[in-house]
Amino acid sequence: MADELIIAPEAQQDIGEAYRWYEDRRSGLGEEFLDCVDVCIQTICRMPELYAKIHEEYRRALLRRFPYVIFYEYAGGKVTVYSIFHTSRDPKKWRSRLA
Fold first, then answer.
1. Where is 53: in which H helix or E strand?
2. Rounded to the nearest 5°, which phi and psi values hold at 57?
3. What would the pLDDT profile of 57-69 be if each residue is shown by its tens digit?
4. What string of DSSP letters covers 58-78?
5. Does 3.30.2310.20 match the CATH number of domain 4-98?
6. Residue 11: which residues within 8 A CB-CB, separation 6 or more?
7. pLDDT-based confidence at 98, cuts 50/70/90?
8. Helix residue spans in the chain (DSSP H)
9. pTM, to two decimals
10. 64-68 long-range CB contacts below 8 Å, 24 or more apart?
11. Mean of the pLDDT values across residues 10-27?
């Protein structure tokens, strides 16, 4: 179990942008997206090593229902979320954020 959770400002921005996009499509859909993000982050914090490392020390967790992944690192009892990334985007973009 993680002792601390840090969400990078860029990840907060990712969440805000996705929320607005979904909310513009249908009222309440953005809230459903936030709920999915919250559930996924709670799972990560409870079992941070559940998801495999995909790049150096970084891990990837898939959201349910929405085509997004959460990229994070678990080290020293701390979970750091770096990106909430749409799966159709160019993978070079998330790698540049993690590097």
1. strand 53-55
2. -100, 10
3. 999 999 999 999 9
4. EEEEEPSSSSEEEEEEEETTE
5. yes
6. 70, 81, 82, 83, 84
7. low
8. 9-25, 29-46, 91-98
9. 0.89
10. 64/36, 64/39, 64/40, 65/32, 65/36, 66/18, 66/22, 66/33, 66/36, 68/18, 68/33, 68/37
11. 97
